[in-house]
Amino acid sequence: MGKQQLHLLVLGAILVFFSIAVGIASFSSNSLESNRDAVIMDLNNLSMMARGFYKKSDSLGGGGNVFSDFEIPERLRTNDNGNYRIISASSQMIVIQGTGIEKAAGSGCTQSDFIQYNIIVDPSENQLIKIR
What we know:
By secondary structure, the chain is of the alpha+beta class. The chain has 1 helix and 4 strands. It has one helix at about 1-55, and strands at about 80-90, 95-105, 110-120, 125-130. A 4-stranded antiparallel β-sheet has the order 1-2-3-4, covered by helices on one side. The longest helix is centred in the N-terminal third of the chain and has 54 residues, at about 1-55. The N and C termini lie far apart (about 55 Å).
């Protein structure tokens, strides 16, 4: 009877450790996806701001059909989701980069670089590009 109880105890311990590992992996995956969604949402908001700046006349504080003078407001450059910066800006196009706070999963179970997206904004459309 003692041997059977020992086997059940070992089996129970294995099941507990397996359950903990699955729970941690599930939480990590949800956290990463939430951060991805938040960075994409922030980039879309910044693209709308940039397009609004582009369309507003320069006499009203806008760009007058030029993106090149657009700047991300100081309070929006860093938030709980990540960091945002302008990669390049020309008269008809602006590229904004968002870097999240979560690290993207690399090969295997290791963590690599932070998630990162670029959004290319022109007068008529946005193009979202996944970097990491």
